[in-house]
Amino acid sequence: MGSRSNSNSTQATHNNSVTMATQGDNLGIMLNGNNNTIIDGGAFDIVASIVDMLPSVFGDGLDAVTSGFDTAEYMADIGAEQNENFLNAGLDLFAGVADSQAEMMQLSMDSLSEAGSMVADGYSEYTQATQDTTESAFDFGADALDVAQRAQDSAFDFADDSLTDSLDFARDSSELAYAFGENALASNQQAQENAFSFAENSLTDSLDFGREAMQANTDLANLVTDTITGTSENMAELASEAMMQNADLSESTVDAVERVNANNVLLAESAMQAASNAASDSQGQLAAGYKDMLDFADRFSRSDGAALATANNKTMLMLFGGMSLTVIVVAVISVMATKGKK
Q: Per the UniProt record, which residue ranges are transmembrane (predicted)?
């Protein structure tokens, strides 16, 4: 028996070489083969650091906005204090004018009281002087009548004594005695007439003096009345002028307060608008800057070499730090500018 063996062997080898090249920004991750290692060069740590810093940066922006509103509130408080000072000054001035008017009225009342006292005292003195003069005149008349009566009594006594002592000579001296009595009666009558005439003249002089004193007192009272009237008119005119000036001053004070309020409102609105614009611009710039930095980190983290990625990440850290510092400086300048407008 024979054996037979057939063997067929076929081997085909195909080698495919693929070359992959990336041009421009490397915006994605390119993997080729198995067990590849992704090299990010620390980009993910940078992104995490940026995310951690976002609250503090936004907090700084919020503090800047809060400072702007605090500045507006401070300006409003200043305006309110100025208004209060204006109102207090107006009230003090009005109180001073009122006190001056009260003092002037009190002075007028004192002048009227003093003038009334002078008139009353003058009339009382005139009445007393008239009464004293009248009493003196009547006393003098009574004394004169008493003297005449005593003279008459003496004459009759003398005649009676003469008649009694001269009974022997009655016939011879009767005519003489009667003549002497007649003369005595005539003298007594003349003395009485003189006494009554003197009393009448004294009473007339006293009444004339009283009338002159009354007229003088009346003239003095009229002078005092005219003086008081003129003084009262002058004080009334002065009080009216003072009240008008006080009203004008009050109106000027109110106008000044209204102008200050309007300026404070405009200034507060400008400050709040500036703070709002600064906050809006800062937040917009921060958002745009963060987006650019994230895109920049995304691009640089996918560079073709580990060393190049590391260098790019360091560059990005420096740029981010500089931008953060710039944002903080801008916020501080905005706050200082807002406070500088008060």
A: 316-337
Cβ contacts of residue 9 below 8 Å, gap of 6+? none
Res. 29 pLDDT band, cuts 50 70 90: very low
Q: What one-letter code names the amino acid at 233?
A: E
The tokens of 38 are what? Answer: 């992704």
Is 162 in contact with 173 (CB distance < 8 Å)?
yes
48: containing domain: 43-340
* DSSP annotation of 166: T
CA distance 319 to 315: 6
Q: Where are the alpha helices (DSSP H) in the chain?
A: 43-165, 170-300, 306-340
In a domain, 195, yes or no: yes
Domain count, the chain: 1
| 19 φψ region: left (φ > 0), alpha (ψ -120 to 50), beta (else) | beta
**39, 306 in Cβ contact below 8 A?**
yes
DSSP secondary structure string for all residues of 113-125:
HHHHHHHHHHHHH
| Model confidence pLDDT, tens digit, residues 120-132 | 676 677 677 667 7
Tokens of 310: 């590391």
In this structure, is residue 6 part of a structural domain? no
User: What's the pLDDT tens digit per position in 283-330?
Assistant: 666 666 666 666 665 665 554 444 555 555 566 666 666 666 666 666
Q: What is the Cα–Cα distance from 217 to 114, expressed in whole angstroms?
A: 14
Residue 12 lies in a domain: no
Q: How far apart are CA 204 and CA 190, in angstroms?
A: 21
With a threshold of 0.85, does the pTM exceed it? no
Instruction: Report the range of poorest mean pLDDT among 40-49, 129-138, 150-159.
Output: 40-49
